[in-house]
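Think of the structure tokens as a kind of shorthand, similar to the way a musician reads notation: each symbol stands for something richer, in this case the local conformation of the backbone. In the example below we present two proteins back to back. Begin with the first one, reading the sequence and then the tokens, and try to describe in your own words what changes along the chain.
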Amino acid sequence: MSEEHGFAGFASVYEQMVDWDRRLARELPFYRRLFEEHSVERVLDVACGVGRHSVAFARWGLSVTALDAEKDMIERARRHAENVGVDVEFI
């Protein structure tokens, strides 16, 4: 990892470190309740990492913009969204 970009090259390791199915199973019900309670239609996912939350939100039909400072994270997130078939604006 470089000093300039602390997470450069970390995307592949990050994906391996996190059990995404288990994590999302715990977290998504909270977000769904919150979004429904507040009639959320559009989400900005700041520091989206590999985009797992962004993709889940887009699958619910929300308009999602996701951003991350690390281009490796964004590229993985973009590929994941394409594989799932959802539209997320990645920055």
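Once you have a description of the first chain, move to the second and do the same.
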Amino acid sequence: MREALGLAALAAPFISPYAYDYDLTIFGIGLALLMPALAARASRAELIRLTVLSAIASGTGMATNTQHELVFGRGPVD
């Protein structure tokens, strides 16, 4: 049941054509649900790679928002 919920949570953001920063919380929940099963089957190096790639994927949106604010300032969003 835990693995099914984790996979559903990881797949949920891919259903919508729109991806927002707050959708990454669903990714974190899915990864947290799958982590016990992943830790039992994956090597330490694979877990480190998964963590680094997750941080890169999650941090890309944050970096883009910061760059946008530096270039255009913090104005109202239309």
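Compare your description with these statements about the second chain. The mean pLDDT is 84.
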